[in-house]
Amino acid sequence: MVTIAERTRHVFCLPEDAGGSGDSSPHTAAGVIAALGVLGTELFRSDDLAGRRCAVLGLGRVGAHVARLLAAAGATLVVSDIDDSKRVLADELGAAWAEPPDCLEAEVDVLIPAALGGLLNPAAVPRLRCDAIAGPANNQLDNPATAELLHRRGILWAPDYIVSAGGILHAIAVELHHETSAQAAARVAGIAGTLTEVLHAARRSATTPDQAARQRARQRIEAAAWPARTGAAGR
Known about the structure:
The chain is an alpha/beta fold.
């Protein structure tokens, strides 16, 4: 990011000693935890993660942070990574270790994809044994139609671009808006409110969370573009 910033000012997540907000992964993980609290409220009438059974698939920078936060909250963990050396973290947290295919199919309350995209596809969905899915991995659905497959199975999927937004929200708050750490943290915590609104909108309209989130995004983009269009028309 420092090297890119030599050519353009449109850069975020710079190191703190370069005037940036530093490592974004802890804030992305904090956003995931906020989202998991929402799913707990929706499915189990409590945002308390203590005793909640969670499978974390991928123990990279964000996934490892999520696993540590869940362990600290008292969740029961199954963790996995293609890097076998990450077993050390599993031992540290008292988590069960599983190979990636087994972790995907673990019988848990929540599956937390924290690695590659395209994980959720027509072949994988019938094998899932979770009540909900929320994680920081990008592009979890191989196709928007897969959201409907999850819906039919009664698996609540939290749109990944909401769940994973904590890092960029924090960076923009600090680096663009020059907000305090507390203000930036509040924006990350706001992921819970956004996800709650999306899930409630999906329930009211009998659609999937994916459809409700896309509709919300379209409305916001159109609302922002409308003044520009009208201004252009007036010139």
